[in-house]
Amino acid sequence: MEKTKKKSTFGRILKTIGIILLVLILLIVGYVAYVLISFHRIGDQSITPEGSASASFEIGTEYKIISYNIGFGAYEPDFGFFMDGGDRAWAWSKERLDKNLKNLADFLKNQDADLLLVQEVDIGSTRSYYIDERPYLTEAFGWMTSTFAQNYDSPFLFYPLTQPSGVAKAGLMTFSEVPIASAERVELPIESGLTKLLDLDRCYSKNRIALSNGAELVLYNLHLSAYTSDGMIATEQLRLLIADMQAEYEKGNYCIAGGDFNKDVLEDSSVYFGKPDVEYTWAQSIPDEMFQGTNITLIRPVDESKPIASWRNADGTPVEGRYRLTLDGFMVTDNVEVVYANVIDTNFAYSDHNPVEMRFLLK
Q: Are 151 and 170 in contact (CB under 8 A)?
């Protein structure tokens, strides 16, 4: 009798374990199905400019443009991102995020730029406590015209398990002191494997500004792919952007592109900032051959006498020796004369990026 009871108890335990395992398997399968089914591309879209800028661009006058990846406002000096070797997926707190975003907006306002390109602006992400970050910038630059192009819209990613990155919705904001006549979101290719779930979606925004000579200034805001298998998809994205700029140039328009290339814009940043212990395969140099046969030039923002990196690896504080590169820069067509280009040194106070600036005139 006792032996029968033991067998019965053991059977119930096995059954319970089996049910628990089955439930776990169903949950995992269900979640994977949800992520794969929910994943989608946003596609090409027309964008309506907002605001009431009233200035105008003159041929031969010098202007200033700034590009800044704000890292969704989370990358304070002590922030380490899990994809970069850190231990966080979310900003430290809603309160610290709010303060940092206000500091970012104040800093940019004090730069007195005529054009501003901002990347990684969240509009409802788990990592930024579902705050819409656009008003921080639109209120700071109320006299400018602005556009917003959503870069990605991901399903809830349950990784890392201790602090799931969750939903990610972010995009590109463009500001101009001169009215933006029209704008569009242009879809870019991404990897086809499971890494697309980490790369999410990619685009560039294309903004048209009318000029007094009948031509247009076509302004591109970009944030190319990172965390990919070998970096080649960002190269393909860049080729498409260069082809677009060349086509506009051949129509008689002036073109400026700026943003986060997620590539080594200086060709070999280690010459300036030292060789890192660990390198990312996606952070490759931009091949010179990409510009052969075109009227487009890559502008590398660097002061040879005092070089400053535009990006630091977010695995901890930006101490000396931390992996640093310049991933941010500009491209211009031949009818745009570049007077100056450099990285603005914030010591990575507000983001894992430093902003880059360029002074230019339209020939």
A: yes
